[in-house]
Design brief:
The chain is built from 14 helices and 15 strands. It has 409 residues and is an alpha/beta fold.
Length: 409
Amino acid sequence: MIKRFQEIIKDAIREGLSDIYITGGHPMVSRKHGVIQFHGAVKWTHQEVDDLLRQILTPRQLDVLRERKSVDNAMSISNIRIRINTFTTNRGMSMAIRVLSGYIPTIDELNLHPALHEISKITSGLILTCGATGVGKTTTIAAIINGINSSRPAHIITLENPIEYRFQSKKAFIQQRELGPHMPSFAQGLLDALRENPDVIVVGELRETDSMQIALNAAESGHLVIATLHASNPEEAIYRLCNAVPSNSQNEVRYQLASTLQWLIVQQLVYLKKFGFRVPLLTIVRGTQAVKSTIRENKLNQLENAIQIGKNEGMFTAERYLTEYLETRQSFIPPTRIFRPSMETSNEIIYESPLTKDTPAQKSLKQNSPGTDVEPIIIRSEYGHDEMENMLTIDEGASLQDLIRKMES
């Protein structure tokens, strides 16, 4: 199965396929230049798809698949980086495979505003990149990391889900961690990173309250924190961060955000008919005194005015970015030149230490032990307090008669 899968991925590189879809009992489907095409001669049986997944998914990922009925992972096949979403359908297991570019693009190659080069010089504070799924936030952050890696010595720790671009250390020392295999949560990953003396912490996504608070604390303590957040405009991004905590803590979070925010970028994609492809459309907010005061005083309805007034300080609304930057440029680099599937430039070995794997004895213990989510029955003593010897845990496999006998003994 693996060899057959490898050949499909290699063919995808040769033919310029960006996406591959494999599902049991159905011809393989691919996408080239955005167009769906069928491969009638390539068909996987349901059992073959199952066998392939058993080989390419780790035990942890298989556990997630059983629990959630879907799982995301990224891997390298024959030095080609791919991202896989495995999910359950009426045909059984299905795979949506994105063939990634092995090359990390620069800010200029992504058709981003050249002012973003300034971010690589920042040594502390918070950089937020916001937008919907699929607009290129991860790639923009990869370009920023690449800029730091090429320009100055720094210890960079990335927390991702999954790892899409693999970096090689140049001037910076880069360590990448993935949710699941390398950390149980973004919050725990952030706590660990703070003990590892980083200069830059990259967080794949700020979603939970704990990770938001730890990220703000890290930025406040002198680290550079670069993170993504799902938000469609700057006001929504700030609102989400400030309202992720109880009301009695929101003033503190506003002050933290006001003191640490360096850049807030909201990214969209807009089709330019003149060139025949999409390019990033940005809203750029800088951490000026006017912006910091607006956040601190909770006057988010005045934020757009602060962005307009900050034109000379490099800030843009989406409308101004379109008319003053995108529509005035004479040329752009076609995305097909940058995002074409290609071999990875990183040749480092992906290694999973056996120290993080369960031993056979631990696996057996987990499988045979009663579920931890079973609530114990506590029998109250005549004195009104809980007697430890009277605590009874119910085994889900026990019969009612066994339970009665145990209670009577």
